[in-house]
Amino acid sequence: MISLFGSSLISLALFLTFVSLGFNIWYIISKDFRFFNSGRNAIISSCILVILSGLTLVYALFHSDLSLIYVNKYSSIYTPTIFKISGFWAGMEGSLLFWTFILAIYTLIVLYQNRIKFITLMPWVTIVISIILIFFLFICLAFENPFTPVDGPIKMGSGLNPLLQHWAMLLHPPMLYLGFIGFTIPYAYAIAAMATQQLDTSWIRLTRRWSLFTWLLLSVAVVMGGKWAYMELGWGGYWAWDPVENASLFPWLTGTAFIHSIIIQEKKNMLVRWNMILIMVTFTLTIFGTYLTRSGIVSSVHAFAATDLGIWFFGFVVFLVILNIILLIVRHKDLNSQNQLDSFASREAGFVFNNMIFVAMMLVVLWGTLYPVMTEALRGVQIKLGPTWFNQKIIPFGFVLLVLMGIAPLLAWRKTSINSIKRNFLLPVCLSTFSGIIFYYFGITKIYPLITLILIIFVFITIIFEFYRGTRARKRGSNESWLLALRMIIEKNKSRYG
């Protein structure tokens, strides 16, 4: 009974998503507002059904309904109650439904937020989300249905893998999915802006909180995943450059570049095309990372088993890449920035260099992750690149990032004078150098840790100096106390001081 009920919910949700897609396309053609409302109601109904299907699976896991194959694999009457819930995302079938479940919640929030606003953008936003929903619902229904019934006598459930019965795994996968899927919303708005030629900063302002929220969750997920692997798998480090770990790092690197880069577009109307490319690449990498962990092309102790899904995910990645390239070509003139970089000694240049480093890091990690796959395809022998290779390539980028974190906040917009550079950097450089001498005296003689600590002190001092200068300037122009002046500068310029 629960098998039929759950599968029916997914089937009806898939049908209604197709209906929503059709109505929204017809609204764009006909401009008849009734089709827009119908498409909106259809996608809302679809999302509600997806949420109900997810809750149904949770109910089956919680009550150890062993009539379902999925529950037999990831739950049992002896599994602790708290870990029965984590069975939702422990297996391939459940994790894909969980992905769709989170996307449905996000979609409902977006539709509610913009129920009477941005009417020109919302049909396109809904179309993009519908296409993504259709893909995942189709996969859930046709290939990885968590509501498939047991064929034959019902046996005692296997229960959740003991390695997954860890507090970090209660939080890491949901955080990771919330982060991965959250990038769908900025991506949908970016595609809508391209389709409607509304390529000003309005779509960025609309999605700023989404981008920051998504990035924060993905950051927490990456740290928790490293913690779990360190504790349970005994890798001897929080980051072992495992392919599954790297899959979560790809979109984090480009997403970090994106949330820095959009500040430049908002303030200086620069990097319009670059920002569009970054969000396109970031979302595509979330799907590509999902493809890596579910296709079986990379070997990892905590990847999903190889299935026939690989070709479908690969096809969807190719579809996204082609769509993105076509849109960039069609709108290439509309994506021209109104302003250009005036000087390399400017805050804009600092952000640009920051972006270049993050993207370079992503490309290096991507190459190292896919190198075994490529060598096996070309030579017939799989050659793996271990942590030593990754560390040698990534640590220098980390040093440059630390330097930029200290330098960029003290640079002026457009151009920084030589005198200003000397005045702003003399104290941080002297204090960080002096701290390095102290660290060396107390026994920190290895070059990488010593350089890292010196740069951390440099960054810390420049950040404190930035807050001090702003507070002092505010205090001079008013009768406010130091504490009130500090609070006011933060409230007046949250993007800068945040």
Describe the structure.
The chain has 498 residues and is mostly helical. It has 18 helices and no strands. Helix 10 (243-268) packs antiparallel against helix 11 (272-295) and helix 15 crosses helix 16. It starts with a helix and ends with a helix.
Structure summarized in a few sentences:
The chain is 74% helix and 0% strand.
**Structural class based on helices, strands and sheet pairing:** mainly alpha
DSSP, total strands: 0
Task: Characterize the largest beta sheet: strand count, sense, and whether it forms a barrel.
Answer: none
What's the Cα radius of gyration? 25 Å
Termini Cα gap: 52 Å
Q: What percentage of residues falls in helices of 4 or more residues? A: over 70%
Which descriptor suits the 3D outline? globular
Element-by-element helix/strand order: HHHHHHHHHHHHHHHHHH
Give average pLDDT, whole number: 85
Identify low-pLDDT runs.
none
Keyphrases for this structure?
single chain
Set down the secondary structure blueprint.
Elements: H1 2-30, H2 33-62, H3 69-74, H4 81-86, H5 92-113, H6 122-142, H7 167-182, H8 184-196, H9 202-233, H10 243-268, H11 272-295, H12 309-330, H13 347-379, H14 387-407, H15 418-441, H16 447-476, H17 482-492, H18 494-497
